[in-house]
Amino acid sequence: MSDSLVDPSVDRNVVVSLEDVRKSFGSLEVIRGISLSIRNGSVVVICGPSGCGKSTMLRCINGLESIDAGDIVVDGISVKDKRKLRLLRTETGMVFQQFNLFPHKTVLENVSMAPIDIRRMSRIEALQLSRELLDRVGILDKENEMPSSLSGGQQQRVAIARGLAMNPKLMMFDEPTSALDPEMIKEVLDVMRNLAEDGMTMIVVSHEMGFAREVADLIVMMDEGQIIEGQSPEKFFEHPREERTKKFLSQIISH
Amino acid sequence: MEFHWEVFDKYWTWIASGLGLTLYISIMSMVVALVVGLIVAILRISKSVPLTLFAHAYIEFFRAIPLLVFIIWLYYGLAMATGINFEPVMAGVICLSMQHGGYLAEIYRSGIQAIPKGQWEAAYSLGYSPARTFVKIIAPQAFKIVIPPTANQGVSMIKDSALVSVIGVNELMRQSMIATSNTFRPFEFYTVAALIYVALALGLSHIAKMVEDRMK
Questions:
Q1: Which residues contact A62 (CB under 8 A, 6 or more apart)?
Q2: Which residues from B are below 8 Å from A93, CB to CB?
Q3: Considering only CB atoms, which chain A residues are within 8 Å of B141?
Q4: Integer Cα distance of A156 and A162 in angstroms
Q5: Mean pLDDT in runs of 10 for chain B (216 residues)?
Q6: What is the model's pTM?
Q7: Can you tell me the ipTM of this complex?
Q8: From the CA of B144, how many Å to the nearest CA of chain A?
Q9: Which CATH superfamily is domain B5-215 in?
Q10: In a mutagenesis test of the B interface, which of A86, A87, A133 is the best target, namely the one with the most B β-carbons within 10 Å?
């Protein structure tokens, strides 16, 4: 499916648009012509078998990986505009599978340092904002702890607060619960659910199909570097078009 | 074997001044080597091919060349070939810091590369530039990792500073040699010299340990 789900030229509410994006690692083409538009306030969940290119696609959106062809525009800024890449990144929060908190900084510093360093916010203002966000993700009581003393679920919630502190237009989640023990998955998904309810535009690479069914506006199925199906949750689960989607769903839901 | 410690009545000031110069050379060389090492390490991991190649060549060259050869070459050879004449102490400091800077560059490089890539990516995704990411996120974490091997390198450098004696610098080793030839009491002077080097090494290790503990 190469046609855009929403045409960016007629819709001013589009936050992210990908146009025929291609990306290779050496001779291996991992993204093979992806087009996708994401509107303000919508939640897109991307799923697909491992190696299908979903994480790479996410990393292309904020320029952690460069693209070989096509274009990605986030809030009017193209990832190909190297001078504006940092600006694009400040508008794009990212949450990683392995949390990637800064281990030499306290929880509060982790959240507040980018607003101070990059947004040039005053220290007092940044600390206040950070405490509000830590409260929102339910972890304010740990503000002075080091990340290593926190559980995985707690660390991931701090990572979400850190991304939110830049007041981004878009939040991206790269398998945010895959490294977590089962009992901690819910606390992270709950934070993400609340975020979606507050109207945040989100792209989530995840196999949490319960979350996808409940929160997503659009579920995108990827395979072999292409989007093979993009549907509303109802249609995606009840009437998947593609055989590969059916097979994928039966595999991850049956276990 | 009998020790005649009374030889120190006359020569202890020699030894003391030798120790002073050894300390001076070691500290100067260490400071310069730390800076050289950091610069070469950053060039080594930079994305620019020419800079990486330069850093690579630097490290390989200074690791391969024997320090004694380098000292003699820089002090005598360079003067004969070009007329550039360094003070002996200066020549010693240059040689020690260039060579140990090469070793330290490799230590720093491995320390920097030991920090997971996710740390760079997390900072980038917040809008940090590569330089700022290095200063605020990577270097503070890498610093803890490189303290013990850096201290090792410092100990090695203190001992290497004895080689500067060959170009007539009156540091601890040379003062001990002169005192020996004046008194024919090698064991007394070399034993004391050895004990002083050991004491310096232990002192440096202790300082490194304190810094390491404070970082935790």
A1: A74, A79, A88, A89, A92, A94, A172, B124, B125
A2: 125
A3: 103-104
A4: 10
A5: 82 92 96 97 93 96 94 92 91 96 96 97 97 96 94 95 93 93 91 95 94 85
A6: 0.87
A7: 0.92
A8: 10
A9: MetI-like (1.10.3720.10)
A10: A86
